[in-house]
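Practice problem: predict the structure.
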Amino acid sequence: MEAIRTGESPKQFYELQAWAVMPNHVHLLILPRVALPQITHWLKGRTAREANLLLERSGEPFWQDESYDHWVRNEKEFHRIVAYIEENPVSAGLAATPEEWSWSSAGGAS
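Answer:
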């Protein structure tokens, strides 16, 4: 979550709209201020280094190579995507409501 927030400020790579950190993936809805490959490279690199330190691993990949991006075309789609991201922990059975998931824009960590 710290890296996600750092990408918004002080790095100013993007404006963060919605997010959820899940056990095996992350959802971000951002308004990019730099090229998306730069954002992805920085965010995956920083979080992989930190996670591997915590796990006492080195030289092992942390993230899969692929990522999925989608352009938001209108306000209706924007709201649908925010709801999807924030409901993801509920759909996965990790929380009863979006607000109960602390690792998201809907939860206590926003």
